[in-house]
Amino acid sequence: MAVSDNGSGEPEKKEKRARRSGTETIAYLKEKSAKEFQIRQEELQIRKEEQCAQAKRQEQMAQQLIQQQEHQQNMFANLQQQQNQQLQQLSQMQMAMIAWFQAEKA
User: What's the rounded Cα separation, in Å, for the pair 106 and 41?
Assistant: First the structure.
């Protein structure tokens, strides 16, 4: 035991800590290692789940983009079809007017 002064003039006795045995140390280190391994496994699992979720979000975004592009293509095709119909109607009206003017001249 070591003896020291605690400031009140009375010596203070400190007990010496008992040194752990080698098997206790090994058991402690095994337990610590097992806990650290478990934590690493959980962290890896969380990272894996996050990566899967990110991949799923990216896939959904890609599908959404494809759908938007298909929708735009359909709208463009419909617009072209309407323009072609309008041009045909205009052409028919012009032909009818030309025929009417020619009939009036005759």
Answer: 97
